[in-house]
Write a structure and sequence with these properties.
homodimer; Rossmann fold; 15 strands
Chain lengths: ~350, ~350
């Protein structure tokens, strides 16, 4: 029997999680919530999702706009086996305290929430077992997810001594006409190391003190990019390429093939026919993979809107104890989405 | 008596070099050249520079457009003590072989030319003495100049074991409406390490094998940015801040002061009343300066259009043996431009 999943917050992440859950044969979407009756709310209804007001006081707003809702979140939450919270960063923690714990329903928060508010931090490759059967878990951010996957590949063939990463972050998502920068590079945070290293450690405690990151924001909407420099105890370029090949949800792209920027990588995802051109996997530039003095160099991109989506699916399976082998869950999720 | 300087190519770099030379009491601009009679050519004449056609065959073009020229480069080159070549990258090498060597005139090429075509590579802090009295020298690129200055500061208080740098490069200059990217991050080169490390080594041979760089291009026009991670034999944050304070042409800026991006840094240069808002110095974010396990972290920006300008002035002094103390030349140049 399919487990019942409620998506609280049908925005950039929520709508993607809903569509991914709907594709699983062991899960069903029992509802999605919205705070306001905008185009996303209308499309949710058109798609056949049961829509609920995320904030009871705003129920009237939906009725005024003629957007059909089934009630409020409190009319559906007791039916849910798990809630995937996709509220904006910082709100998830409030929802956890005020709603999920009160209603004793398992909940997944997203990477915008801090590690300390939940029992553990999830990545399907690294912490599936630790999150197995747990009640309140956080799927780490898009950037941390991308780093965790690549470190998994490298860690599978050598030991990481110290990794240095510079994150070149997109300024805003494609649908966001409010944020910038339009013409500037912004050190963000201006302090170094940034919080991204510790966030990886929340998933992989053995990397404590070994991941040093800095980050800037640049005027682009399509993807983040990472430049990684990973000191190891010893490896070769071929071993790393082989490890990437064997690691789920990472793959190599070649600049020589025309995949020479985040723009052409997104064009590739569009040509693949991906829904919303989502690229759930982390593309790593083949040309950039190099080993000098046991140090692995590589550059990768991260589709900020979608790489965490399959992780949310696997996290549901772990928390509801639906599958005890993480690689089997990953394979099942990948197959459902069309990830090779 | 003032030395006679000819500027071959009155474009982004050339017009700035001309204005800087004009400010020196020991140098004079005997002419500037242009390949076409555009607005820059017209402004050069209005400013009082003697204009020459860089390509003799195009002399008629200037006459057609009513832009007054004094002749072609070959009418003035024999009067020059030195030529500062500011032609587009790759052309300088041809000019060196076809013109400067033939006319036996000393010449400075810019960073777009390769190190192997000249006798040595110039940075006022590192290689002034080596370039003293030489005939054909290259002032290294804006990015390499920025790195050389910061490494000088760090090297003045500790030994650099290995430095890793990620360069986040501006996509185009502000006046360039042809180039991009508009919405993408481009690994450029897609191979790692990039050529920027070896370019630093062309100035500082003792860093051979110690500078590992990667580079991306992003959609911005104002400045480049660098994230530096420099392993040392041991130092402190205070020592590094002190070294930055004492090193010419680098200074700290504070994000807390509002100088939190390349955009606000350029606004600062505009408010300072700098010509063309040029920022000849390298701003380093104070908040980013950190030392963890003897590794220095910092982030800096580079005004690609102008940081090499004072270097060209010092390079003239070195090549024409006008001043044998590099620090005195630097001080003289700085004073003339208004650099503190």
């Amino acid at each position: 029997m399919a487990v019942k999943v409620l998506i609280n917050g049908y925005g950039s992440i929520g709508k993607r999680v809903a569509d991914a859950v709907a594709k699983q044969d062991d899960m069903e979407v029992i509802g999605v919530t919205k705070t306001k009756p905008d185009f996303e709310a209308k499309l949710a209804v058109e798609k056949g999702y049961k829509l609920f007001a995320a904030i009871p006081e705003r129920k009237g707003l939906f009725e005024e706009k003629g957007v059909e809702i089934e009630g409020t979140i409190f009319d559906v939450i007791e039916d849910a086996d798990i809630v995937v919270d996709c509220a904006p960063g910082g709100i998830g923690k409030d929802n956890l305290e005020n709603i999920y714990k009160k209603y004793k329903v398992k909940a997944i928060l997203q990477g915008g929430e801090k590690a300390k508010f939940v029992e553990d931090s999830f990545n399907a490759l690294w912490s599936y077992d630790r999150c197995y059967g747990k009640d309140y878990i956080r799927v780490v951010s898009c950037n941390t997810t991308g780093l965790c996957r690549t470190f998994y590949a490298v860690d599978s063939v050598t030991d990481i001594v110290k990794a240095r990463v510079v994150l070149i972050r997109r300024g805003a998502d494609p649908n966001d006409a409010k944020r910038g920068p339009i013409n500037a590079i912004v050190p963000n945070p201006p302090t170094v190391p940034s919080h991204h290293g510790p966030d990886v450690v929340s998933v992989v405690p053995k990397f404590e003190g070994k991941i040093l990151t800095s980050a800037v924001i640049v005027p682009t909407t399509l993807m983040h990019m990472h430049s990684l420099m990973i000191e190891t105890t010893g490896t070769t370029r071929d071993a790393i390429l082989d490890a990437i090949e064997k690691t789920p949800r990472v793959f190599t792209v070649s600049a020589e093939d025309g995949l020479n920027s985040t723009a052409t990588i997104i064009e590739y995802a569009r040509d693949l026919g991906r829904p919303r051109y989502d690229l759930w996997e982390i593309p790593i530039w083949e040309e950039s993979v190099n080993v000098v003095d046991n140090e692995v160099f590589l550059m990768q991109a991260v589709h900020q809107e979608s790489d965490v989506i399959p992780e949310n699916i696997d996290c549901i399976r772990a928390m509801l104890q639906m599958e005890d082998d993480n690689m089997k869950s990953i394979e099942k999720t990948n197959k459902s989405l069309g990830i090779k």
